[in-house]
Amino acid sequence: MANTTRAGALSIHGTNPQYLVPTVIRQRVYDTLYWKEHCFALDAASVIDKAVELNHVGGTYANTRPTEFMCLVLKLLQLQPEREIVLEYLRAEEFKYLRALAAFYVRLTFDSLNAYEVLEPLLDDYRKLRFRGMDGSYRITTIDQFADELLSEEMVCEIQLPRLTQRKVLEETEGLATRRSKLGKAMGVAVVDKPDQSDSEEEDEEGRGRYLSRSPTGSRSSSYDSVAEARRSRSRSGSRERYVSRSPSPTGGSDAEEGGRYMSRSPSASPEAQMQIEVERVEGDV
Q1: For a tag site, which of 42, 141, 157, 181 has the least CB within 10 Å?
Q2: Which phi and psi angles does 45 have, rounded to 5°?
Q3: What are phi and psi of 12, to 5 degrees?
């Protein structure tokens, strides 16, 4: 019979492979014109030509009519191709709808460990797919989004997916390798390329040591103090000389007296110098 599973097919998840598709949808697939005209006498090789001709994915639309994609899914369940053939379907990167068909078949028939290992590489494929909803309208999805739905959702294309063991459980029990996204890999490279902090601190200490060794006194603070003191002394002496040389003598007194008067008014002179100037002025008056 055209609608029976091939002879010698193994049971999947303890049941006939075709029974993974609900009975209602399966009977509607058998009644479609596409199944009767295009899916008759197909084998694992000729089904590729039909998958390449697909232009959308989906389950049923208008609540009654199954899509061509669902017809080919049921045909693969009926044929039950070998594992190597299914993996070859996935390697045909130029045919994105063939990859989507093979990914759906893998999710239905493979165990949890193999499903993760086979489907997770599709998360790096960002090509667009057309998805036909139950109302008959189309929407745009991508291969990576479709693969993510297969790994995370319980129902895709109106098909109840077999139970999938959590990934962290498989990592602990089955030795499944930890998955790293592209962003995680990029951040890991950035951490490796980052220079060691201890090395940078040692270089900073060496640089400070070389700078301090150039100071004649061995201390930057002492050199700064000596320079500041020299500047203050030059400013005091320069101001005293300017007051003495430029002060006029309106009363006809000596330059020393006038210079002394002006110097006594200078705020930069020390108290001892002012006292000495006053003494000399008093003695001169006497």
Answers
A1: 181
A2: -90, -45
A3: -115, 125
Are 8 and 2 in contact by the 8 Å Cβ rule? The answer is no
Hey, what long-range contacts does 158-163 have (CB within 8 A, 24 or more apart)? Answer: 158/22, 158/25, 158/59, 158/60, 158/134, 159/20, 159/21, 159/22, 159/25, 159/59, 159/73, 159/108, 160/22, 161/107, 161/108, 162/13, 162/20, 162/107, 162/108
Cα–Cα distance, 130 to 151 (Å, whole number): 19
Q: How far apart are CA 204 and CA 109, in angstroms?
A: 61
Token couple for 177: 């390798």
**Amino acid identity of 198?**
S
Question: In this predicted model, what pLDDT tens digit does every residue of 54-113 receive, in sequence order?
Answer: 999 999 998 789 999 999 999 999 999 999 999 999 999 899 999 999 999 999 999 999
**DSSP strand E in the chain: where?**
57-58, 60-61, 65-66, 128-132, 138-142, 155-156, 159-160
Spatial separation of the C-alpha atoms in residues 59 and 39, rounded to whole Å: 17
Task: Pick the closest to residue 60 from 51, 68, 52 (CA basis).
Answer: 68
Is the model's pTM score more than 0.85?
Answer: no
Judge whether 30 and 3 are in contact, CB under 8 Å: yes
Tokens of residue 48, six digits: 């590729």
